[in-house]
Design brief:
The structure is a homodimer.
Chain A (H helix, E strand, L loop, with lengths): L4 E7 L1 H4 L7 H11 L3 E8 L3 H14 L2 E5 L10 H8 L4 E3 L1 H13 L6 H4 L3 E3 L3 E3 L8 E6 L2 E6 L3 H19 L4 E9 L4 H7 L1 H5 L5 E8 L2 E10 L2 H19 L3 E3 L5 H11 L4 E5 L5 H6 L9 E6 L3 H6 L5 H7 L4 H15 L3 E7 L14 E7 L4 E7 L4 H20 L4
Parallel strand pairs in A: 1-2, 1-3, 3-8, 13-14, 13-15
Antiparallel strand pairs in A: 4-5, 6-7, 7-8, 9-11, 9-12, 10-11, 15-16, 16-17
């Protein structure tokens, strides 16, 4: 069989009134893409029978495989399961394996097994049940006119478990695919337009089977080359050459050639150097620490941080001089330096970063304008400082400050400042 | 004109390969919903002309207003603007106001104005230009067969600005809508099924124009009542009564009747009590501090936190006894208590919370199983502790620990433990 096209339908009123951000589709698309399977469309509809049926009808004309998430919860606002049963012409029966599994989960979590949960074990008799290792709602696989329809719960971790355990292996066994290779170049310090201009000729020279995409996010621009072909190995080396070509052209704004979170790129540098790091965060309020500790194994290099939101904490724990604050204000190069020196000392780390700023909204004319941020990074023998100016609102400025801080540390540690 | 139905089309390969999570649609849906405008479908397609055209054709049969985001960036992978121009039968012209605006932005940000940016000022001559206050790509409004199509850039903050400044006022002026009222009940401590069973009769008794939805997220379940009618005032009081009825039934698991982040609910309690708070975070690595400082005005009550990821930081800054760690391990009630007492003292706050745990993945048989977390919360005169067990992976456990910690603090402060 040739390459298959996949369409994803997500069901739930919560998606149409904006109460829930759809993270499922992105995750599903990513995993499918790694297998060389193209997602051609994603559709979100409400918990309304006619909308669901229409979406099914339409997507089945556009794709060979339709993946559905949502609408399978234990509560009364979910209507998908009986609807699918009717759509595929089956009747509801209790699946014994699922029932046993649900009871085990309830016992383990020490919760009473209720009538509403019993319904979770019912499935249309015309489907193949897909086991849900971590939750109560099973997945269901249907066939119709040579096409495949798979329904999964909307709870992200349950959907992920069913995808990994059942759906991805099934697709891999039953369909052959093109090889797809992605190569990324993570940059920081310049905007999308600047980069586009700088690599214009390289982009134009790309062959038809290699595409370039720009993926900007706060503080960074990621370039992604995607190649498609029959032979994975030769494609891999072809993409690697192109990646190097682009990276050489962009030289000093390149942070990494691996599609990893910046926190992990920084972590790898620290592991290589067998060095530790610590933080003194004022305006970012713990966000940088949080980001660093998202990475498995951060305990090897991250010792901790002082969130010194209040002036007293800066003075009492980091030893910042009250007079320096009075003279220069808390958002100043001088305070950033005293903070980073305090952090090096009290956290007993090889490297430290400090950050102090005003993220917004504006509250007082005498303060520096929102978006003004000072950072300092230091080791035992040197300190570097930098002033940043972000132009957005509080939360976006916080995002940008966090990402910029990680890049700033990474540059300092790798002598790229 | 009657109520309008809106369909949202998001354009971009990055959405179909999962590189980007679509946060735009949720935000748009939320704002439209507040105006009483129903979003009936959301569709995501790639940067492929035929896919975009098909989506436009189809959505125009299902909705009176089609909102498009994405595909308007300055770089070569964006094809939407010329496509729309062709679709609506126009030709590209430079919009002088947009050109001036783009040049101003470049001057302000101290960046060179490049040829690629010039293109941003071009628009189809058959559209109404919608001003983009904070970015370079303008929005565009088209008419076709009595329907309205609006195209906006995919960068979230730019889309938001155009929605607020142009699109929402336009829709409000040109269409009349039902009044829509939402009332929320935020609960913590019980699962969706338990809640459903407990309020079954109240849910069944709801009239047809009021809907109930369950919105579970890590550590909390939000119930949302949505009413629709002609008269906003009477709907408001009707919904308020229903909300009270549900809240009374659920009594001690109710955290708030306002649809606010838990961090803000906690902040309001602290402001009322004129009290300050501080944190000692081990396993959550600054996440709770980050969450508390997302709230505007957190500076009134949040003084700071110690992220004590490493044992040495627990000992040196919080004064945790090395012997206690050796005897009880770092993940224990005893350490949580010493941490919280240390935090109260060094941060000089009225309330403190400490958290220590293993979030995963499992690394060593001797450690407590992943998901084991101890928390302590204290004021000058008392300490309460609680052991939590989370059943997911590292990042989800971190989410749940963070949310649970905020609820735990809120309960302690409001004498609800």
């Amino acid at each position: 069989m040739a390459n298959i096209r996949v369409s994803i339908i997500t069901i739930g009123d919560e998606l149409l009134i904006g109460q829930t951000i759809d993270t499922n589709s992105a995750w599903m698309a990513q995993r499918l893409n790694e297998l060389g399977v193209d997602v051609v469309r994603r559709v979100a509809v409400g918990d309304v029978a006619v909308e669901i049926t229409t979406a099914l009808d339409e997507e089945l004309t556009k794709a060979e495989v339709v993946l559905i998430t949502g609408g399978l919860g234990p509560t009364a606002d979910d209507i998908t399961k009986p609807l699918l049963c009717k759509y595929f012409g089956g009747k509801m029966v209790v699946d014994e394996r699922t029932l046993e599994h649900i009871k085990t989960i309830f016992t383990k979590r020490n919760r009473p097994f209720l009538e509403a949960n019993m319904k979770q074990a019912e499935v249309p008799d015309c489907c193949t049940v897909l086991h849900n290792r971590i939750g109560t709602a099973p997945g269901m696989l249907f066939h119709k006119a040579g096409k495949i329809i798979i329904s999964m719960p909307g709870v992200p971790f349950e959907m992920m478990a069913i995808m990994e355990d059942e759906v991805l292996p099934y697709l891999q066994q039953n369909f052959s695919h093109d090889a797809i290779v992605h190569k990324s170049i993570i940059t920081s310090g310049e905007g999308e337009s600047f980069i586009a201009e700088k690599i214009k000729d390289l982009e134009t020279a790309l062959p038809a089977h290699i595409k370039l995409a720009y993926l900007p996010s706060p503080g960074i621009v990621k370039l992604r080359l995607t190649g498609r072909g029959n032979d994975k190995l030769s494609l891999e080396s072809e993409l690697k050459l192109r990646q190097e070509e682009f990276a050489n052209r962009l030289e000093n704004i390149v942070v990494s050639l691996h599609d990893l979170p910046l926190a992990q790129v920084l972590g790898q540098s620290l592991i290589e150097k067998k060095a530790t790091i610590g933080l003194a965060e004022s305006c970012t309020g713990g966000y940088i620490s949080h980001e660093l500790t998202q990475i498995v194994g951060a305990t090897q290099y991250f010792k901790g941080g002082i969130v010194c939101y209040d002036r007293e904490v800066k003075e009492n724990i980091l030893g910042v001089d009250a007079k320096t604050i009075d003279t220069h204000t808390a958002v100043s190069e001088e305070i950033a330096i005293e903070m980073v020196q305090g952090a090096l000392k009290v956290l007993k780390v090889d490297y430290a970063l400090s950050i102090t700023g005003m993220l917004g909204p504006a509250t007082d004319k005498d303060e520096p304008p929102p978006g003004t941020v000072w950072m300092a990074v230091a080791d035992k023998s040197s300190v570097k400082t930098r002033k940043f100016k972000f132009h957005y609102d509080r939360l976006r400025n916080k995002d940008m400050a966090m990402q910029s801080a990680i890049v700033f540390m990474w540059r300092f540690i790798n002598n790229k400042l």
